[in-house]
Amino acid sequence: FVPLLVVAVIALAALVSLGSPWLAVRKVDSATRALGAGRLALAVSEANGARSLNPLLAEPLYTLGQAAARAGDLTTARARFRQATRLQPENTSTWYRLGQFEYYGSRDLCAAYIAFNHAYTLDPNGNEWTKGGVLDRARDAVNSDHVCG
């Protein structure tokens, strides 16, 4: 009986370890759809569920940040995007998403430039970098307005 129980526990653990990432991605997809439909509470619930299944994913933090921004809570939104950069500091996307929030959401061009520049430093050949794009516009605004201390 004991060997059978051990095998069952090992099989269950394997199933959970293989199934959790898949379920987390499904929850991220659900959260993104809910956010698109304006169902902020559901988006937050699904994003938090995805984080509990796979705390290493940055995508649920983006959804949580976007939901907070739509609710008018820019402090929480910024915290979620920054949390993603701490979770995955070498991921260009986390810095780019933070830059997008700062540029479009909070209109903090200094913070946007810093985040975009960090993303650019990590991957200067990325598809997001175009002449006259957000990095150039943020840099130009910072240089012309002297908004950074």
Features:
0% strand, mainly alpha, 7 helices, 149 residues, single chain
What's a quick, concise take on this entry?
The chain is an all-alpha fold.
Q: How would you portray this structure in words?
A:
The N and C termini lie far apart (69 Å). With 149 residues, this protein is mainly α. It is elongated, with a radius of gyration of 19 Å. The protein has helices at residues 2-36, 40-53, 59-70, 74-87, 92-106, 109-122, 134-145.
| Number of strand segments | 0
Radius of gyration: 19 Å
Low-confidence parts, pLDDT < 50 over ≥5 residues?
none
Q: How many separate helices?
A: 7
Roughly how much helix do the residues carry, as a percent range? over 70%
Q: Helix/strand/pairing class, anyone?
A: mainly alpha
Mean pLDDT: 89
| Mass-distribution shape | elongated
Question: What's the helix and strand layout?
Answer:
Layout: H1 2-36, H2 40-53, H3 59-70, H4 74-87, H5 92-106, H6 109-122, H7 134-145
Helix pairs in contact: 1-2, 1-3, 2-3, 3-4, 4-5, 5-6, 6-7
